[in-house]
């Protein structure tokens, strides 16, 4: 059982930055691909970013390429989503999820999900 907890959400301004964290107290993320997903009101949940279990590859949604960066800390205890140049359209509830020994973070194939953190971007 991998329990995930997101943090770092809140209010951001257009053009500003926020950093989201995904962590667990029971395991490191070394054997999991970790994805960030988001769901905005009235929209389907979408994959935002993914980092493979061995850190060899990352994937980003077109809407966030060049603005968001997914990374692991050196100890493998947390995965971050650095969000720069925020847009109002980034407003959503953000979830992290783990895929055992994965690399591409398909939404249908994630094994564990966090409960989400709300990001609101407004001027």
Please provide a written account of the structure.
- The structure is a single chain.
- By secondary structure, this protein is an all-beta fold.
- Helices cover 0% and strands 46% of the residues.
Write the layout of secondary structure elements.
Layout: E1 5-7, E2 10-12, E3 18-23, E4 32-39, E5 46-51, E6 58-60, E7 68-72, E8 78-83, E9 92-100, E10 112-113, E11 117-121
Parallel strand pairs: 2-11
Antiparallel strand pairs: 1-3, 3-8, 4-5, 4-9, 5-6, 7-8, 9-10, 9-11
Give the overall silhouette: globular
Name the assembly state.
single chain
The assigned structural class equals mainly beta
Major beta sheet, specifics? 7 strands, mixed
* Helix percentage range: under 10%
Proportion in β-strands: over 45%
- Rg, Cα atoms, Å: 13 Å
Tally of DSSP β-strands: 11
Distance between the termini: 40 Å
What is the string of helix and strand elements? EEEEEEEEEEE
Q: Low-confidence spans: pLDDT under 50, at least 5 residues? A: none
Average pLDDT, all residues: 92
Tally of helical runs = 0
In short:
This protein is an all-beta fold and 123 residues long.
């Amino acid at each position: 059982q991998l329990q995930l907890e997101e943090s770092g959400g809140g209010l951001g301004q257009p053009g500003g930055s926020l950093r989201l964290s995904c962590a667990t107290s029971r395991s490191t993320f070394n054997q999991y691909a970790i994805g960030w997903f988001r769901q905005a009101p009235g929209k389907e949940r979408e994959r935002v970013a993914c980092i493979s279990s061995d850190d060899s590859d990352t994937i980003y949604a077109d809407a966030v390429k060049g603005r968001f960066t997914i990374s692991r800390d050196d100890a493998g205890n947390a995965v971050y989503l650095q969000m720069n140049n925020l847009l109002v359209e980034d407003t959503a509830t953000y979830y992290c999820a783990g895929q055992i020994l994965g690399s591409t973070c398909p939404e249908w194939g994630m094994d564990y999900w966090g409960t989400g953190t709300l990001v609101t971007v407004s001027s």
